[in-house]
Amino acid sequence: MNRKQFRLVVGLGNSGKLYSATRHNIGFMVIDALAEKYSIPVEKKKSDVLFGQGKIEGSTIFLAKPMAFMNRSGPPIRRLAEYFGISGEEIVVIHDDIDLAFERLKIKMKGGHGGHNGIRSMTGAFGNGDFARIRIGIGRPEGPREVTDYVLGKFSSEENEKLGRVISEAGDAVVTILRDGIQEGMKMFNKHN
Question: Can you give the pTM of this predicted structure?
């Protein structure tokens, strides 16, 4: 099978209790769910990144959460990747996306930052956008609400009822990419455009 083997799965978010349950931290939530499901403790710290190494569906991978703020998450991930000899093309990044409706999920190979500060930091640090992304929809704020307040805000009670399923589906997308490759992942999870 001629496909790229992914070795590092990164969830984007902001560290600290203040941000833990916010929309911007859905990447961290997916990493935490995968860590629990596959018994991969994400407790080691290097270059301002919490990470763990383990196996998912036979693939040896790293799960990582940068501890720098979202807009500075790229350099710590680059240092971690360099330390373990991992190229940008071997990385999957999980992040929130206001341009997708809540509950929507989209897998993308390469691309620009789309206005997302964490992805902008990653592309800046790696010098390109050659990493795969799992974009998790959080929707846009209604009315005059500022985007920053919205993404740093907590999910509504209605969203919280569905959040577990969204996180689980994003975890399934990671597993599919690791096991079957990104094209198969896109075929399975990019159902509604």
Answer: 0.93
